[in-house]
């Protein structure tokens, strides 16, 4: 089918990148002369393309003589069994515009109460989300490494479809084969290279929407490209965003831990910033001292010694199902350290033990303070040069097991003063001036990680030395 173009459309297209055959270039130049136009060498190439649109129309040259290179180039690439998008945008020849997306068709049972383009099905727990990116957002992401689109396992690719003026790739990630995970997702990634935007349709459920339903939603999308021009980020803005992204990718991004930062049971622990004149003091940590008085690595937690009411979660419904008949923890399945899972053989099955820690916290100041009772359990790797590095947590696959091990927090605490609102603030309590509180917390650790386990204190706050260099906060080695 032949495509007809208006003069305005030709001007817009030719403002983009074009590869012009030499014969056509000559005819355009001849037409320029006939129209009394001059193609001075001082003209920007972009201006030449804009004027060339008029020349083309006047000369009656068919647009099929041009090879159009669109504003955005999108390439689905494969590497090591994974598919990812390589997106290229040249801000010198393409303009970025805001886009608005409206779905004319949404399957029955889904409601969007907040108007945030995320629909919920309250009967099934399924969700449906529309996510859009304009050219400026995609350009910034491509320059900073902040890839907006996820990578996909090669086997999750379903097919490529054409929808209106967009190309779409359909992916299905089946997570139901993983132990404890019942939700899968289906994504339809739609992109328009001419205007430089991407729209994602994401279905998350035990049984995501069918391929035909996903395509039907895409066919009903109403996408409006505004005449407003969005400026592309400057080099300075890109550099700042890249720094922020890289720091976020590094997790906590704390400096390596020196051996001198490692303490033992019986040592008094204080926030490093308490000794610094240049660091900003965190009021809740000023005048607070911790001391680990006892550490036990246990196979079981007898109810007579560890009453049910002191568990953070409900003991009978959450903790008991994780135990064998003798009270030891059942083995569980966890993700590998790099989180790359291609099939079940990549998952790891491990055993776990309990770590019971008795702590003493003291408010040495003159005023009442709210204090945090739960130092986090972390894994540190020795580097061989007198320093240690905090390792990435290996998360459990089963949601039930994650309930007692998430983020290194304890699942048992012998003193609980804030238990309202489903114990959201159970790890905090108030200490009067000069008051000392002693309590026991219990953690879960994988058996192969106990030798590298440490309790971390104050690690949510960066410590600074007098010369403003970064310091590690203190850790206590887990050892009996």
Features:
six-stranded mixed beta sheet, disordered N terminus, single chain, Jelly Rolls, six-stranded antiparallel beta sheet, alpha+beta, 480 residues
- Side-by-side strand order of the widest sheet: 6-7-12-11-10-9
Helix content: 10-25%
Mean pLDDT score:
79
> Structural class, from helix and strand content?
alpha+beta
Task: Characterize the structure shown.
- With 480 residues, the chain is an alpha+beta fold.
- It has three domains: 7-69, no CATH class; 72-225, Jelly Rolls, CATH 2.60.120; 250-477, no CATH class.
- 18% of the residues lie in helices and 33% in strands.
- The protein has helices at 7-15, 22-34, 45-59, 135-144, 211-219, 235-249, 315-319, 399-402, 420-423, and strands at residues 17-19, 67-69, 72-79, 82-89, 99-103, 118-121, 126-133, 152-153, 157-163, 166-173, 184-192, 197-205, 221-225, 257-258, 262-263, 268-269, 288-298, 332-334, 348-350, 352-363, 369-372, 376-382, 387-390, 412-413, 428-431, 436-446, 453-456, 463-464, 470-471, 475-477.
- Strand 9 and strand 10 form a beta hairpin.
- Helix 1 (7-15) packs antiparallel against helix 3 and helix 2 packs across helix 3 (45-59).
- Residues 1-25, 35-69 and 176-181 have low confidence and may be disordered.
């Amino acid at each position: 089918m032949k495509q007809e173009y208006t003069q305005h459309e030709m001007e817009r297209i030719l403002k983009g990148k074009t590869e012009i055959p030499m014969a056509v270039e000559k005819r355009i130049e001849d037409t320029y002369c006939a129209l009394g136009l001059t193609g001075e060498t001082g003209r920007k190439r972009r201006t030449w393309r804009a004027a060339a649109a008029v020349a083309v129309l006047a000369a009656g040259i068919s647009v099929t003589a041009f090879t159009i290179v669109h504003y955005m180039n999108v390439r689905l690439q494969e590497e090591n069994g994974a598919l990812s998008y390589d997106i290229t945008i040249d801000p010198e020849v393409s303009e970025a515009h805001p886009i608005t997306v409206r779905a004319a068709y949404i399957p029955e049972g889904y409601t969007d109460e907040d108007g945030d383009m995320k629909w919920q099905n309250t009967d099934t727990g399924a969700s449906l989300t529309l996510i859009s990116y304009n050219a400026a957002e995609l350009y910034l992401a491509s320059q900073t490494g902040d890839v907006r689109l996820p990578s996909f396992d090669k086997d999750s690719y379903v097919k490529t479809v054409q929808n209106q003026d967009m190309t779409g790739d359909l992916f299905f990630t089946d997570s139901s084969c993983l132990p404890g995970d019942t939700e899968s997702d289906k994504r339809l990634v739609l992109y328009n290279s001419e205007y430089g935007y991407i729209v994602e349709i994401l279905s998350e459920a035990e049984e995501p929407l069918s391929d035909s339903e996903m395509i039907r939603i895409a066919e009903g999308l109403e996408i409006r490209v505004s005449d407003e021009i969005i400026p592309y980020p400057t080099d300075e803005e890109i550099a700042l965003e890249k720094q922020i992204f890289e720091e976020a990718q590094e997790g906590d991004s704390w400096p390596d831990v020196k051996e001198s930062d490692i303490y033992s049971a019986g040592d008094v622990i204080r926030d490093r910033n308490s000794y610094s004149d240049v660091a900003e003091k965190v009021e809740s940590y000023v005048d607070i001292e911790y001391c680990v008085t006892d550490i036990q690595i246990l196979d079981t937690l007898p109810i007579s010694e560890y009453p049910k009411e002191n568990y953070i979660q409900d003991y009978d419904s959450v903790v008991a199902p994780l135990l064998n008949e003798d009270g030891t923890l059942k083995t569980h399945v966890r993700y590998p350290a790099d989180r790359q899972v291609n099939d079940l053989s990549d998952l790891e099955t491990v055993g776990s033990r309990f770590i019971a820690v008795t702590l003493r916290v003291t408010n040495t100041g003159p005023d009442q303070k709210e204090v945090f009772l739960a130092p986090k359990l972390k894994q540190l790797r020795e580097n061989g040069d007198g320093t240690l590095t905090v390792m990435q947590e290996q998360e459990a696959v089963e949601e039930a097991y994650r309930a007692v091990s998430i983020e290194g927090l304890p699942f048992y605490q012998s003193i609980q003063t804030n238990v309202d609102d489903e114990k959201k603030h159970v790890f905090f309590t108030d200490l009067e001036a000069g008051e000392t509180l002693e309590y026991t917390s219990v953690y879960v650790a994988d058996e192969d990680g106990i030798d590298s386990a440490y309790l971390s204190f104050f690690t949510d706050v960066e410590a600074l030395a007098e010369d403003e260099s970064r310091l590690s906060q203190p850790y206590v080695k887990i050892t009996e």
